[in-house]
Amino acid sequence: MRVLLVGNANERHFGAKSNNFERKLANGFIRNGHSLYFFSDRDVARAGTIFRSSRAGRGVANSSFLKVVNAFAPDLVLLMHSSLLATETFAQARTQRPGLRLAQVCVDPLFRPVNVAFLKDRALVVDASFVTTAGAALAQFRTATNTTSYLPNPIDPSMETARGFERSDQGMDVFWAARAGKGDYPADPRVTFPLHLAQAGDIRVDYNGIGDRPQLFGADYFPRLTNAKIGLNLNSDRLTGEPHAAPADQLYLYNSDRISQIMGSGLLALSTRTNSLGELFEENREMAFADTPDEALETVRRYLRDDGARRRVAEAGWRKSHDELNERLVARYIEDVTFERPLSHAYIWPTQLW
């Protein structure tokens, strides 16, 4: 099969953001034996104008995409972060190549209205939509032609190469990297949890992207991540300024890709229970959980006291992630659903179609 993946290759960052979801899916399709062409709409748009502006280059990106469809003749077009391309352009691609299948992937939370609007618009022309949120919230994207399903964040063994559970000599106890700044709200766990752990005084915490601490990218990221025993897997649960968390159906199993980086690298992952990740990973057997900064502090201290338990739970989470949530299985699931085939694997994540 010939797969045209449309997404943001981040070429302007010169390799600093090369471990993203798009590249993992690209690897998955290639390793499953498919021919893949990566069309980076933002990079094409910037290169197409003298101002190097992606917005100014929208027209160039749309026309170039249709040229690629004509020249590459894909069987599947997979859309990710392709905001510069118009929905009408994808409809035109169908006319240009009869029998073409279209699918979209959204890795952003559903409590942000812009993501919902974007999914609904593309649902008018695609055959399948995949979202890193599961459950009944996906029913709103059903159309006469589109079905929607959950998609987990994939592990890629060529990116997540470390085995933190095999070591006890890490220089740090806890790792955290985010773009949280000062947080979206006063109790934002992306800020309160790492700061509470750091202020305890007896835990070595490497935290980044909070307050004045810069974000962490590129070649520095994985060495810093894998120099810790425990990784904080924390997500926002509401819009900036909202006093209350989003409804449970908008949070169900939602997670950023840091979960794959932490568990895929063999750290013990510490998450809140807000997103029901306990349905995928058993508490204290494959992942640790804490809902408050104080509970997180107690949990971290418990696992630091019992390094054998930390290593056992981290290894179990690492093994399940690599065996059941890898890039090849996630790519295969997209293929199964988009082409309306019987599921080719007993996937461990929810596979209900909405």
Summarize the structure in words.
This protein is an alpha/beta fold. The protein folds into two domains: 2-154 and 326-338, Glycogen Phosphorylase B (Rossmann fold); 164-324, Glycogen Phosphorylase B (Rossmann fold), CATH 3.40.50. It is built from eleven helices and eleven strands. It has helices spanning 21-31, 41-47, 58-72, 87-96, 113-122, 189-199, 221-225, 258-264, 293-305, 307-324, 327-338; strands spanning 2-7, 35-40, 76-80, 101-106, 128-131, 147-150, 172-181, 205-210, 228-233, 268-271, 288-289. The strands form two sheets. A six-stranded parallel β-sheet has the order 2-1-3-4-5-6, with helices on both faces. Helix 8 links the parallel strand 9 (228-233) and strand 10 (268-271). The longest helix has 18 residues, at 307-324. The radius of gyration is 21 Å and the shape is globular. It starts with a strand and ends in a 16-residue tail after the last helix.
Nutshell version of this structure?
The chain is α/β, with parallel strands linked by helices.
Helix content: 25-40%
Quaternary organisation: single chain
Q: Which band does the percent of strand residues land in? A: 15-25%
Tally of contiguous helical segments: 11
Largest sheet: 6 strands, parallel
- In total, the number of domains comes to 2
Structural class category: alpha/beta
CA-to-CA gap between the ends?
A: 26 Å
Are there runs of 5+ residues with pLDDT below 50, and where?
none
What is the CATH topology assignment of the largest domain?
Answer: Rossmann fold
Order of helices and strands: EHEHHEHEHEEEHEHEHEEHHH
The gyration radius over C-alpha positions equals 21 Å
Relevant CATH superfamily of the largest domain: Glycogen Phosphorylase B
What is the number of strand segments? 11
Q: Overall pLDDT, averaged?
A: 93
From the spread of the alpha carbons, the general shape counts as globular
Give the strand line-up of the largest sheet: 2-1-3-4-5-6
CATH architecture of the largest domain: 3-Layer(aba) Sandwich
Question: Under the CATH scheme, which class of the largest domain?
Answer: Alpha Beta
